[in-house]
Each structure stands twice: as structure tokens, then as C-alpha cells.
Specification:
Layout lengths: L1 H32 L5 H13 L7 E11 L6 E2 L6 E2 L1 E16 L2 E15 L4 E4 L5 E4 L10 E9 L7 E3 L2 E3 L7 E11 L4 E9 L6 E3 L8 E3 L3 H38 L1
Parallel strand pairs: 7-13
Antiparallel strand pairs: 1-6, 1-12, 2-3, 4-5, 4-11, 6-7, 8-11, 9-10, 12-13, 12-14
Helix pairs in contact: 1-3
Amino acid sequence: MAFIVIGVLLVLAAVAGFFFMQSTKKELHAMIGTETLSIPELEQQRAISDGLGGRGGFRKVCEVVGAAYPSPQGPLLAEITKTECVWYRYRVDRQYEHVEYRDGKRRYSKRTEKVTDFTSSNGYALIDEQGRTIGVDPNGRAPDGVEQTTDRFEPYHGGDQGMELFGIRIPFGNRDSTLGYQYKEWLIRPGTRLFVLGEAHDRIGPLVLGKPSGPGHFLVSTRTEEELRASRVSRHKFLAIGVIAGFALGVVLTIVGAVRGLH
């Protein structure tokens, strides 16, 4: 029976890996097939669209490279480190001691639960070397290759161990069994070089890069396109090997388990 269970799990993992492999392949092909445009080139194409009576209807899937630049409202302030940025994410996990009774004995195990996981959704911009800008709508998407500014564990010593976020006090779980809290934060500082694959549009007036309105890919990364392509090629090869090996081994174990079950 154990052979069958493990075999089925391996087959299912191989199927999931196959779909992930296909997604990686499509993303790689999107980067290869999408044109990299400068901000003036996009403005020129938008002007042509306006001249043909398409004001507000311009759509262009493209790649744009530039430096991260704050919105007109100014830079954001990351919640944990209070660092100026254009985008940030933070996560807080509670580590606690779980107690259970089994066979008349008390058993302890260390567990983790998520307290909060927040990603900023504020828009920002890309700026080129001539000071021209284009907006970026992150759409809640976590960028690739961002800087991690903190990853620290703080032991719990009793008392009020809540955390204040945006003026709201958040109490943390069952204090009696709390061991401590893991704080993590990631961000993009102003001036960070970014590669963006997405759709440029003028729905709100100025040009903005965001998630395509139809099928397509949206990617924001601190890595270059060449680095991203290389990582996708490596991932695809690794997944291809894993899918073939996992599926073959899963089938073999399932058959072996079935045969042993008949005897």
C-alpha cells in the first residue's frame, strides 16, 4: 500500500511540475518575442494612436528598462525598517510550542503560524537617463529579485507582544505558548534598475505599464532580461528532468505496489 501511495504522489507531483514547466516555457518565449521599447518610442506610438482617434485606447505589450522612481505623492516608508522605497512587502510569523498528549505522554513540537503578510499596491514609475517617466501599476504582484532588508527573530518575553501596523494594534496568537516572532521585509529602493514586461496603456491619461488586459505576462524584476532568460532556461531543464524521473518512478512504484497487493 505504501508503494502505491508514494507512486501516486510522485505521478501527481510530475503532472504539477509539467504545468509549471509549460508556464516557464511560455514566460521565456514571451521575453524572447516581446520588443524592448524606450519611453519616447512608446509616447510616439501613443501619439499615432491618438491621431487615429484612439485616445485612451492605446495598448502595447512591451519591455521597458529604467530606474524605479516614486509616484508624485513621494516615496513609501517600509513598515518594519522605515526605509524609503517605491514598493515593499513584509511578513510576520509567530513561532510557538505546540503541546499534545499521546499514549499518556506530553509531547512538544515547534510550529509556525502566519500573523500578517502585506504587499504594497501603490503605483510608482520608471525613469530613463533623460528624466522621462512612465508609470508602473504593480497590481499587487511581488517583483522578482528584490532586496530583503530584514529577516530577524525576536524571542517573546511576555507582556503585550502585539504589533502596530497602520495605526491598528494586532495581538499575536496564544501568548502562553509563544516562543517569538520572525520579521521579514523586502523592498525596492528609489533608483533601483528595473526590467518590466507588461502592457503599456493610457486608460487613465499618462502611459502606465501593468498587467495585460488580455492573455499575457506581467513581470517586474531587478535582474536584466539576459539574467531572467538564463534562469528560465535552467528552470525548464531542471523541471523537465524532474517530471520525467518523477513520473517514471511513480508509475513503477504504483505497479510494484499493486503487484505486491495481489500476493
